[in-house]
Each structure stands twice: as structure tokens, then as C-alpha cells.
Amino acid sequence: MKIKKQIEYPSLHIEAISSEGLGIAKPEGKVVFVEAAIPGDEVSVKIVQAKKAFEQGKIIDILTPSKDRIAPFCDHFGVCGGCKWQYASYEAQLAYKEEIVKNAFERLAKVPIKEILPIAGSSQTQYYRNKLEFTFSNKKWLTLEQIQSEDTAINRDALGFHIPRLFDKIIDIEHCYLQGGLSNEIRNFIKSYALQNQLSFYDIREHVGFLRTLIIKTSTAGETLVFIVFGENKQKEITSLTKALMQQFPSINSLQYAINLKKNDSIFDLEPVLVHGNDYIIETLGSKKYKIGAKSFFQTNPVQGKTLYDITKAFANVQPHETVYDLYTGVGSIALYISDDCKQVIGIEEVAPAIEDAKENAVLNQSDNCYFYTGDVRKIINSDLYQKHGKPDVIITDPPRAGMHEDVVKELLNIEANRIVYVSCNPATQARDIQLLNEKYEVSKMQAVDMFPHTKHIENIALLTLRK
Ligand SMILES: C[S@@+](CC[C@H](N)C(=O)[O-])C[C@H]1O[C@@H](n2cnc3c(N)ncnc32)[C@H](O)[C@@H]1O
To answer: Which residue of 44, 219, 320, 411 shows the fewest CB atoms closer than 10 Å?
Structure first.
């Protein structure tokens, strides 16, 4: 058998960062992507994947650290899949994100941009999420020390996050820097209670066990919603646990649970049972209120969510006589956010429960000029809709990572709205779509928003203006 030669580079200089958050080195004209490396690092590298066009490797040793390299703040760093960029200073992270966006537009799509505003960084770089989902498992990920100790009495129950690429291994979380409020205390209390009372943690391979998942949602005003999913319908144990939880944390605003006897963890077909409080908490962004239930979708960083909506609103600059289409509206958050300033907003979204939330939120905010439609944007934007509401003066579009379907882009070119505000969580597909829209639109302004500090994720907003 031919043994493949292990490729190693004794010293590589990292020049740039890729859209996937990897360091880029270019030894002798080759392109090498290096995991966990940042521009300015001098590193020795072991190649783990060698292709014709590029190689990908892992750091063996950091020979000279970049000036932007800092010590990670979290004890779970390196094993947990979250907050992966915490080895780079926050200023450097923002600069990388700006560079990635610029690269997508100027070098790949080659679309000129009239004005690029500086990225809107997050004032809060820790505890910025309003929702976390933890998994109970009897397959705790063990540290090397724990494995080497040969201590057979180590408890394998864990409550935390999935290890990237290992579906059955869970890292037991002691402290998570992503969610503030009572999140850490509630999670640790439930784990200790379960261990003390010998409640079983779920076994994902055998599909047995009492405790399955824990979802904690918080609002900026400090409200807390707790949703526990059980794998067995044991009413006595559920009552004892929820009672103990309320006794320990009387300020919990909403406590719900559901029984999941299916093999998959999806919660959308489960019926939540209310134990305490309302079945929702309220998030306030600007002057608008949004109901957040156990199952509803909402921007997970509310502070930066408001920044995103403020920039979107400023770019759209809607006028009282104007009709706005909000494509891929989710729970109608952007539609509602701008509804006071225009004649009407038409929100389109394919997930039916999200549209139910959108309609409820419209009632909550007494916004009677919002109309919501469930279905594929590609099918819903057609002459029937234009007849009913008129063609839009302004289009706001916020598609998923894959961007817009080519037919949708073609229809936007056909509609010829005066302005399009394109909100995107993937600058590469956004640049691809805007390259096509460039036939009739120019990019007047662009600004990125950092919704997810310490990750490679970028949100980018572009204002497109119809060429007259
Ligand atoms: C990035 S989210 C938009 C979120 C929303 N604008 C907000 O700020 O909360 C994209 C949304 O598009 C929806 N979606 C994906 N493909 C769709 C399609 N073909 N037609 C309609 N909605 C779609 C998803 O369900 C999701 O809610």
C-alpha cells in the first residue's frame, strides 16, 4: 500500500482571512487555508487536506503570534463550536469582516459601490444572545485528562452543546458567555437537580432517557422563558422538577415543557404545556413589541437586531405614500419596524407559524397596514399580488444564506421598484445576486453589522437604487 506523504510547512506567514474564517498563506504561489490562524501569524502547519487548487492545514506551533492575537476568555474554547474567533481582538475581527465583504463585492462580483460605511460593531461582545438550546446527554465529551485518569466512576451525564461534527457527544457547559441573565444559573441548577434526583439524561443512540433539551430565552428587559423537552411522560418527575425550578428562580416569566417521543429533536411539531406565567415573553425593539414564544423565531442578538433594523430603515427611507414589500419576512419584524412610515407593507414568508407570529405581532402593535402572505417568494410575487396591493416603491429582501432564486432576481428586475434594500447573512450570495441586479440598479450604500461577535458570521446591508 502506498503511504501518502504527510505535508508540513515549517513556517508560513498568514496574509489574509477567508470568508470561512480561515487564515490564508501563499507559499510559492500555492493557497493554504490554516484553521485558527489570523493575519500576521507566523506558524508551522500540518496539511490535512490537499487538493489541486488549495491545501488546508492545522497549526502545529505558533512561531510568532499576530499582534491581534489575544488569550481566549472561555474555558470551553477549543472544544465547543461557539465563539471560535475569540483568539483575535474584537477590533481585528471587525476588520476581517469588512475585508470579507469588500472582497466579495469588489474582487469577486466586481460590482462598484458608491459608499461603504464602517461596520457597525456590537457594543456587547459577550452575553449578546437571547436564545440558547442545550442538550442533555449520557455521552459527555471527556477531556484528555479525564480519559487518561482511567477513573471509571466519572459521571458521563452532560448538559451543554454538541461537539462539532460529533452528533452524539455533548460538551458539559459550566459557564457560557453567550447568554446573560439567569441562563447559566438555570442550566446548572437543572443539571445538579437531575443528578441529585437520578433523572436520566437522553441517550441519542438508544433513544431512551427522560431529559432531552433545554431552551432558555431572555429579553433585553430581563424576562426569562424556560422550555424543557422530556423524552418520557413522567408527570410526577416533571412536576417535582418544575416546582423546584420555580422555587429557586421565582422571577422566571414563562415555564413550559413538552414531551418528545420522536427520534428527532425538532420542536416544531410538539405541543408546549404551560406551567407558569404567560406562554411568551416580550422583546421591545425601538417602539415595536414582539412576542417570543417557546417555538418562535426571532433575531438572536436583539441589541444588534435593532441596529440592523435602524440601518435598514434609514437606507429604505420610506415615505408615507409608499408601498413596501418585505421579502423573506420571518415573523414580520422588519415589516412592523418600518410600518409607521409608509402606506402599507406586504410581508412574504414560507414558514406558516412565522406568519402567524407576524400577524399576532401586527395586532400587538396596532399596525393595521401590514399584510402577510405564506409561501415561496418566487411564487407569491406575481401579477395577482400587484393587482391587489400595487407594485412596490421599495423592496426589502432578507433571504436565507443561499440568497435569492434567480427567478426572484429576474422578477425584481421586472418590477423596477425605486429602491431595494438587500439584507444578507452571506455576502457571497448577496454579491452574486447584486451582480445580476446591477443591470438596472447601482449600489448606493453598503454597511455591515456584526450580529455575532467571535464568529465568522456577517450581516450586510446594501441599498440599491434604480438607474433612471
Ligand atoms: C434571514 S431570515 C429573515 C428574517 C427576518 N427578515 C427577520 O429580520 O427576522 C430568512 C427567512 O426566509 C424564509 N424563507 C426561506 N426561503 C424562502 C422562500 N423561498 N420563500 C419565502 N420565505 C423563505 C425563512 O423561513 C426565514 O424566515
So the answer is: 320
